[in-house]
C-alpha cells in the first residue's frame, strides 16, 4: 500500500488505505438529527438575515438622520448666530461712523420731531407734490388759487412794463 | 461517495436557481441541506470530534451560505464551496480552542481524550486509536487526510477548498499517513 516513492511522483487519484480500519468511524449521532437540523438551521438563518436587514436599515436611517441634523444645524443654528453677531457689529460700527456731532439745540429739535405723531409729520411733509396738494383742494379753493395766480402773473407783467418804460 | 457527488452536480444548477430566487430561496435552502448536510457533518465531525461543535459549525456553514449566496460566482462547484466554508469554520474553531487551551501538548491530549470520550459507540479499540492518531496531526495535515481518505476528494478539489497546490497536498497526505501508521505501531 504505502511505498517509499516520493508522494509527488504518485498517481494523483491513489488513496492509501488502512485495510483493518477502513472508513468506519467510532462516533454516534443523536436520533433524528439529520431530519431536524435543516428546519432548525433555516429558522436561525432567516432570523439572522432579518436582523442584519434591520441593522442595515437602522444604520442607514442613522446616517440619514445625522446628515439631516448636520445640515439643519448648519442652516439654522450656526449662520444666524454669525449673522446676528455681524449685524450687531455692523450696526455699532455704522452708528459710530454716521452719527455727526450735534449741538444741544439740534439734539432737542430732533427729539421734538421724534415726539411728534406720524399723522402730524405726514401733513407737513415737504416731499408732498403739487399734484397731491391740488387733488386735495375743492373747486372753490382751486378757483381762488387760479385767480391769485392770474393776478400775480398780471402784476409781474405790469411790473415788467414799468421797468421797460423807465 | 462519488455517486453522491455526481448526483449533487446534477442537481447543483437547480439548487442554485432556487437559492437565487427570493420566492423559492427557503425551498432551495432545504434542498441544499438535505443534499449536502451528511457529507459536511461528517467532514466537520472528523475534524472537531465533538457532536455539539460539529452541529454548531454545520449550522454556521449553511447560515453563511443562506446569507451570502450572491457571493457564489460559480468559479468552483457548489460542494467544493461548501467544503471550503465548512473547513474555514473548522479552522476558526481550532484557533479559538488553541487560544483557550494555549499549550500545544495540552491540545493534543485534549483532542485525543475527546476521541476516547463517552459519546462514542463501543467499537474496536483500533478505531479509537486511529482517530486519536488523526487528531494528533497538525491541522492542515488533518484536513487533507480526512478530505482524501474519507471523502475521497481529488487533489484538485482539495486544492480548491484549501487554496493550496495539488503537489503540496500530496506531500501533506503522505506525511499524515506516515505519522498515523507510526502511531498505530507505537500504540499496538
In short:
The complex is a heterodimer of chains A (166) and B (188). Chain A is an all-alpha fold. Helices cover 71% and strands 0% of the residues of chain A.
The string of secondary-structure elements of chain A, in order, is HHHHH
Largest interface: A-B, 34 and 48 residues
Portion in beta strands of chain A: under 5%
Give the termini separation of chain B: 31 Å
E-strand count of chain A: 0
Sketch the major β-sheet of chain B: none
At CATH level 2, the architecture of chain B is Orthogonal Bundle
Which stretches of chain A are low in confidence, meaning pLDDT under 50 for 5 or more residues running? 1-12
Tell me the domain tally of chain B.
1
The succession of helices and strands of chain B, N to C, reads HHHHHHHHH
Overall mean pLDDT of chain B stands at: 84
Rg over C-alpha atoms of chain B, rounded to the nearest angstrom: 17 Å
Helix content of chain B: over 70%
Radius of gyration of chain A (CA) equals 53 Å
CATH level 1 class label of chain B: Mainly Alpha
Major pleated sheet of chain A: none
Structural category of chain A is mainly alpha
Pairing-aware structural class of the strands and helices of chain B? mainly alpha
Question: What's the CATH topology name of chain B?
Answer: Rna Polymerase Sigma Factor, Chain: A
Beta strand count of chain B: 0
Strand share of the residues of chain B? under 5%
Amino acid at each position: 500500500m504505502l511505498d517509499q516513492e516520493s508522494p509527488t511522483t504518485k498517481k494523483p487519484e491513489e488513496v492509501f488505505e488502512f485495510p483493518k480500519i477502513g472508513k468506519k468511524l467510532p462516533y454516534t449521532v443523536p436520533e433524528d438529527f439529520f431530519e431536524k437540523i435543516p428546519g432548525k438551521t433555516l429558522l436561525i438563518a432567516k432570523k439572522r438575515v432579518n436582523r442584519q436587514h434591520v441593522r442595515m436599515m437602522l444604520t442607514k436611517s442613522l446616517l440619514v438622520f445625522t446628515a439631516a441634523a448636520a445640515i439643519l444645524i448648519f442652516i439654522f443654528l450656526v449662520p444666524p448666530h454669525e449673522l446676528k453677531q455681524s449685524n450687531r457689529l455692523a450696526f455699532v460700527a455704522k452708528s459710530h461712523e454716521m452719527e455727526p456731532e450735534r449741538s444741544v439745540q439740534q439734539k432737542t429739535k430732533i427729539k421734538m420731531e421724534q415726539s411728534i405723531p406720524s399723522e402730524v409729520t405726514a401733513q407737513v411733509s415737504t416731499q408732498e407734490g403739487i399734484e397731491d396738494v391740488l387733488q386735495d383742494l375743492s373747486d372753490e379753493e382751486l378757483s381762488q388759487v387760479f385767480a391769485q395766480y392770474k393776478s400775480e402773473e398780471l402784476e409781474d407783467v405790469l411790473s415788467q412794463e414799468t421797468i421797460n418804460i423807465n | 461517495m462519488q455517486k453522491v457527488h455526481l448526483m449533487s452536480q446534477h442537481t447543483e444548477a437547480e439548487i442554485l436557481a432556487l437559492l437565487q430566487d427570493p420566492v423559492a430561496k427557503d425551498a432551495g435552502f432545504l434542498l441544499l441541506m438535505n443534499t449536502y448536510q451528511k457529507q459536511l457533518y461528517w467532514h466537520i465531525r472528523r475534524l472537531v470530534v465533538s457532536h455539539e461543535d460539529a452541529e454548531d459549525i454545520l449550522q454556521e456553514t449553511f447560515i453563511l451560505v443562506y446569507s451570502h449566496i450572491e457571493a457564489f460566482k460559480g468559479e468552483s462547484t457548489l460542494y467544493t464551496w461548501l467544503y471550503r466554508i465548512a473547513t474555514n469554520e473548522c479552522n476558526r474553531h481550532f484557533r479559538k480552542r488553541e487560544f483557550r487551551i494555549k499549550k500545544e501538548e495540552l491540545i493534543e491530549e485534549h483532542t485525543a481524550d475527546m476521541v476516547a470520550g463517552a459519546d462514542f459507540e463501543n467499537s474496536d479499540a483500533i478505531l479509537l486509536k486511529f482517530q486519536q492518531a488523526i487528531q494528533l496531526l497538525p491541522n492542515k495535515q488533518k484536513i487533507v487526510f480526512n478530505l482524501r481518505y474519507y471523502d475521497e476528494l481529488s487533489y484538485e478539489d482539495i486544492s480548491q477548498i484549501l487554496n493550496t497546490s495539488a503537489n503540496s497536498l500530496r506531500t501533506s497526505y503522505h506525511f499524515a499517513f506516515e505519522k498515523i501508521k507510526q502511531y498505530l505501531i507505537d500504540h499496538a
